[in-house]
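#struct-help
A.M.: can someone run this one for me? Single chain, 86 residues.
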Amino acid sequence: MKVPVNGPQDIGAIIRATRKAQGLRQDDAAGSIGVSENFLSKVERGNPSVSWAKLFEVMDGLGIRILLDTPVDIDPTPPAGDGSKR
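D.P.: on it. Structure tokens below:
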């Protein structure tokens, strides 16, 4: 299912709806993913200051993938070893 995302609150709502659709309580989902229930609660409320790495762990644990639709064709592969930021 494709769902538009315009901010942290949208991501949180999608995560919460996915967890509930899978019949998981928040504490059980958090435990199986390896994050605290408090963190999962923050994610589901759309807290904009959560850790990106942990956010992706939560999404992965619930089977949620993110696909970005760019306006032009790009090569998303980072250059090897140049260390520059773009």
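A.M.: thanks! The CA atoms of residues 3 and 14 lie 8 Å apart.
D.P.: also worth noting: DSSP finds four helices and no strands in the chain.
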